[in-house]
Design a protein that fits this description.
binds glutathione, 4 strands, four-stranded mixed β-sheet, globular, Glutathione S-transferase Yfyf (Class Pi), Chain A, domain 2, 8 helices, Glutaredoxin, alpha+beta, about 10% strand
Length: about 210
């Protein structure tokens, strides 16, 4: 299998954490987002969204990290990260949908607008996008914070795919223009994730590469 990815990208990191957790021999192929390499014809042929990562398994091509992470677990029959119980599986998928639609959509927008753009000389943040992302976090961060009150992980008191998904933009919570201080349960949860073996390993691997954000 091949993972086409952008070194240092948050969405790449979550998949790389799962690859590490599962001990899968997946070849990483790197693209430079800021040099427009996701728009090269051979990449667009794999993923017309010009987004990364994309998994290639023989003639099967899969994009969207949630689908990739679930597929990787299925490939090795791993039931720790993605248990077979319909309720646990639905609960994990629920949080993966939620983070992609709300929490990390907003936090990722702030990371791009306020951190990545400055770093790559891409002009000022788009004020309307920043305001919208902040409003989204005002609505949804309290939901996650309340859920994480007296919990270690999102689902069933064990590390699952939901946690690797939720942690995607966790390194940015002190870098973006949003005050996470009141959300102490989110903060301690993300601190715990930063120590977790495969999430940390994927971060170290990313740090050894040129940063995407
Ligand atoms: N929902 C997608 C998000 C992928 C995504 O936005 N990836 C970023 C890198 S972290 C990207 O490719 N950005 C380029 C762009 O949006 O033009 C997924 O989960 O795979």
């Amino acid at each position: 299998m091949i993972l086409h990815t952008v070194p240092g990208s948050p969405n790449g990191r979550r998949v790389e954490a799962v690859i590490s957790h599962l001990g899968l021999p997946v070849e990483l192929r790197h693209y430079d987002l800021f040099k427009g390499e996701l728009k090269l014809p051979h990449y667009l042929a794999l993923n017309g969204n010009a987004k990364a990562p994309t998994l290639q398994d023989g003639d099967f091509v899969l994009w969207e990290t949630t689908a990739i992470m679930q597929y990787l677990c299925e490939q090795v029959g791993n039931t720790d990260l993605f248990p077979r119980s319909p309720r646990l599986r639905a609960d994990i998928t629920r949080w993966q949908c939620w983070e992609g639609l709300y929490f990390n959509a907003a936090l990722g927008t702030l990371a791009f607008e306020a951190v990545a753009k400055a770093k790559h000389n891409m002009g000022p943040p788009d004020a309307a996008l920043v305001a919208q992302a902040r409003a989204t976090l005002n609505r949804f961060a309290p939901v996650l914070d309340a859920h994480m009150n007296s919990r270690k992980y999102l689902v069933d008191e064990r590390l699952t795919l939901a946690d690797y998904s939720m942690a995607t933009f966790s390194p940015y919570i002190d870098k973006v223009p949003y005050d996470f201080t009141p959300f102490r349960h989110i903060r301690s949860y993300f601190e715990r994730m930063s120590q977790s073996e495969h999430w940390a390993r994927a971060g170290r691997a990313a740090a050894a590469q040129p940063r995407a954000a």
